[in-house]
């Protein structure tokens, strides 16, 4: 593949923005692509993929590159991908033999898999021998998965409609509303997206709303609703009948959920900002179903957000675990006796998942609950994101 000055500069600028200014990769890529409307689909694809890949392999590239000059780092990445470098002055001092030689000398998993050492140690201690292949899987590129909005269309109709436009998809077994794109592309531009016929949502994430066993007419609380991905799915499963209270501590995220609801033809979502314990107390025993899609490290979705591994630390992992336990302890009061609560994370760490549930069940408030089932979804087994989903019942 031939390299072009303008797009390589786009990658270099984006990488410097991410690492020097500590910005999120997805936001930086979005900004870079927006600032250059003349780039075509291939150029955009090249930039997005190269930036994500460089972020993913940052530690490895830095170990091999002859310097921390961003062109050298890009050149190293490009050669590691099995490509050739053009004769540009910026790439002076790097060649494929040197890159191969330095790569072959690396033995340790933390560098080879390009993750911080503390994370490698934590992963191994918590996941044992599963860690090796899990981190390998989490370093690959994720599929683009759609969730069909059954309020507007069926999976078969959407599949046919997209196929007529040349967008090939397949329906993965075991995920009744999911379609996987055959080829990565910007699907947000598709008219079916603008018409609210689908959302982009990983297949594992689609298991969360399903676990709540909702029926039309129920009163549901989605207590960490964010931009409303799971609330929208719940609304579709409830045939847009009943009530969903979508709550979060961040009001701007709920605003986003409102816009998405309008596009999806959903009218039963009511956003509510959590302003403290008072908001929770007022809703005591008011919900038939309660979803706690709690904040987490995001280690199950590293394929989508590779920069997570450079942003988290042992301290932030401990802090988020504290928040998770606080949420389950305090928010579980909003569920009616006999109701069902789902606790979910997009993490693969037992300390954020089954250990949190065990701690809750052993506590005073947890005595009112029983665990019905839980799913520990690893990326290496499912082929999709890593997730944890626990389904609990509040005793009558
Ligand atoms: C995993 S995200 C939710 C994703 C969302 N459910 C979706 O499907 O798109 C976790 C959310 O919890 C919110 N959050 C963090 N601390 C919270 C708290 N104490 N109470 C409620 N929400 C909180 C964050 O703002 C974030 O939007």
From TrEMBL:
Q: By its UniProt entry, which CDD domains does this protein fall under?
A: AdoMet_MTases
Q: What is this protein called?
A: RsmB/NOP family class I SAM-dependent RNA methyltransferase
Instruction: Return the similarity comment.
Output: Belongs to the class I-like SAM-binding methyltransferase superfamily. RsmB/NOP family.
Which top-level enzyme class is recorded in the Swiss-Prot or TrEMBL entry? transferase
Q: EC number(s)?
A: 2.1.1.-
One Gene Ontology term from the biological process aspect of the record: methylation
Positions bound to S-adenosyl-L-methionine: 248, 293
Q: Name one Pfam family in it.
A: RsmF-B_ferredox
Q: Pinpoint the SAM-dependent MTase RsmB/NOP-type domain residues.
A: 134-395
- Keywords from the named record: Methyltransferase, RNA-binding, S-adenosyl-L-methionine, Transferase
Per its record, what are the GO molecular function terms? methyltransferase activity
Query: Catalytic positions?
Result: 346 (nucleophile)
Presence of keyword DNA repair? no
